[in-house]
Amino acid sequence: MAGSKAVKDAAKAADEEATKLAEAKKDMKKPKPMSKKNLAHFEKRLLEERKRVTKELGHHGDAFGPNGEAEGDTSAYSFHMADQGTDAMEREKAFLFASKEGRYLWHLDYALRKLYKTPERFGICEATGESIAYERLDALPHARYCVAYKQREEDAKKS
């Protein structure tokens, strides 16, 4: 009988703990949507950054003429092998920078679409549902994840 009483007490304690957890979960509020002032601030930041990136992409595009040749070339072919190597390296660098900026532009556009279509979800971590810190968004206005989740993700990549 003493064992039966102990089992009942343990079950009662477990039920009380489950009830406390359920109540705590109810008390946890959904992250508050961002204020209109903050949304306007991040919209401005995203648009400025987008303008800068599109200007940079235009600059990389200007490195080549309409036929894909480097500007300043008087002929379609370089006369010296060293010039050909330099031209090829410059084209490769320009394409690399343009593709990196292109990916960054995609992330900026994604953030702007989210801000316009679902402003109540802007600034909310896509993985955890928690608010992304204002400081993180201010530094990286296109951030999709909170610092804690991003840190776990990067640590998992290292392992």
What does this molecule look like?
It is a single chain. It is built from five helices and no strands. The chain is elongated, with a radius of gyration of 27 Å. The protein has 159 residues and is an all-alpha fold. The protein has two domains: 1-30; 31-68 and 76-158, DksA, coiled-coil domain (Four Helix Bundle (Hemerythrin (Met), subunit A), Up-down Bundle), CATH 1.20.120.910. α2 packs antiparallel against α3 (81-117).
**Largest sheet: number of strands, sense, barrel closure:** none
The CATH top-level class label of the largest domain: Mainly Alpha
What class would the helix/strand composition place it in?
Answer: mainly alpha
On the 0-100 scale, what is the average pLDDT? 77
Counted up, domains total 2
Name its key features:
159 residues, mainly alpha, Four Helix Bundle (Hemerythrin (Met), subunit A), 0% strand, 2 domains
